Amino acid sequence: xxxxxxxxxxxxxxxxxxxxxxxxxxxxxxxxxxxxxxxxxxxxxxxxxxxxxxxxxxxxxxxxxxxxxxxxxxxxxxxxxxxxxxxxxxxxxxxxxxxxxxxxxxxxxxxxxxxxxxxxxxxxxxxxxxxxxxxxxxxxxxxxxxxxxxxxxxxxxxxxxxxxxxxxxxxxxxxxxxxxxxxxxxxxxxxxxxxxxxxxxxxxxxxxxxxxxxxxxxxxxxxxxxxxxxxxxxxxxxxxxxxxxxxxxxxxxxxxxxxxxxxxxxxxxxxxxxxxxxxxxxxxxxxxxxxxxxxxx
Length: 297
Prior knowledge:
- 34% of the residues lie in helices and 28% in strands.
- The chain is of the alpha/beta class.
- The longest helix is centred in the C-terminal third of the chain and has 15 residues, at 282-296.
């Protein structure tokens, strides 16, 4: 369990990246959902000991071990943390086997036999064993992300953080990567930071929605979707009509179907005017929370 309480961070340029963030992260997959600039990466970097918070606390509790103060006991955090940042670079002329072996040494796995067993097991786990001797510069985007997860799992971490891991992956590589994360999440706490709603829908029994440094919602995706039942309405409109609908309704999303916009609106009662009730999904929840924040500002 990771307990985050009132975490705040303001950068030198005045940007309030984190504004009193409070979240509980249990074991398993936890989705951190929000648009670009929501503060997700700032939170991940703070939890990963890469930057200081201005105030607040974060405590990592591991069964059978003393609780770790994430903000102050950075060495202890790093020993129990696996981190795949958004921009994970590799040495293109080095093989996966050699670089993972190097990372294992840096992680403190110095005994040669043990290190070989760990490295080989991880390459098998992320399905890169057959490509272990290939140079990383020849890997596809999905293969590089799977290698990134392998290095994040060195040292048997209890908390794994992955920041926007599926951005830019094709559908097949995305599915393979998400299946890998789901398997990892059976044993440890995994924070999946993303702006892709489907990633959270597919994987995460618990989540938080963030925007502008604030937490807008925490809980189970299924509960959030249930709370919107009978409040989402759909209609196909003409492009010229969009401004009028946006002025008169809480428009959650707009997408083209057959070249014409289809809008989803949020309303506690039937808005009439040809709207049809639809079953909500997590995307509707996500946009509804963003719209509520915008209207309250």
